[in-house]
Automatic annotation (TrEMBL):
Similarity field: Belongs to the UPF0312 family.
Taxonomic classification: Bacteria, Bacillati, Actinomycetota, Actinomycetes, Pseudonocardiales
Domain (Lipid/polyisoprenoid-binding YceI-like) ranges: 11-168
Source domain of life: Bacteria
Name of the protein in question: YceI family protein
PANTHER family the record matches: PROTEIN YCEI
Organism: Amycolatopsis pithecellobii
């Protein structure tokens, strides 16, 4: 199945154990790369006919933010940035699915730290699996759009998200 094809119209539950949310950003005034990840809590994909009526909802765990530096992780999870204690979830709700220049695009609202802003993900791969479907998507999140402005210069404004999602078909 190519990314232009559409999986079977059905409901699929995201499988957190076989899914990942990773990111790449910069710090130290853009001089160094930072990679890290979040854990997916749960989510659902409703593939519709036509595909443009499909819907996605997903929730990630803000307290699971991790890079390879524990002190940085603690600071990012703190009230200064993610405020994960008060806002333990990052949520995505799709608002549009469209085919653009031969590639599926998923547009939606991302809520971080209680503030919602639009985001788009390009679906770079979609394939059926024995028990559901597997998707890969990429997008860029502007942390300032979510009111996370502390650390200007030290931490980049944008994060590139890489989503590798496995979803299991719900049997009705």
């Amino acid at each position: 199945m190519t990314y232009r094809q559409v999986p079977e119209a059905s409901i699929y539950e995201l499988d957190p154990g076989r899914s990942s949310i990773s990111f790449v950003t910069r710090h130290l005034f853009g001089s160094a790369k930072v990679t890290g990840s979040f854990d997916l809590n749960h989510g659902r994909i409703e593939v519709g006919l036509p595909a443009t009526t499909s819907k996605v909802h997903a929730e990630a765990d803000a307290t699971s933010f991790r890079t390879k530096i524990k002190l940085r992780d603690k600071i990012v999870r703190s009230a200064m940035l993610l405020d994960a204690e008060k806002h333990p979830s990052l949520t995505f709700q799709s608002t549009e699915v469209r085919l653009e220049d031969g590639q599926w695009v998923l547009k939606g609202d991302l809520t971080v730290r209680g503030k919602t802003a639009p985001v788009e993900f390009a679906v770079t791969e979609a394939k059926t699996t024995r028990d559901g479907l597997s998707l890969h998507a990429e997008g860029v999140v502007d942390r300032y759009a979510h009111g996370i402005t502390a650390g200007k210069g030290f931490a980049a404004r944008r994060l590139k998200l890489d989503l590798a999602v496995h979803a299991v078909k719900v049997v009705s």
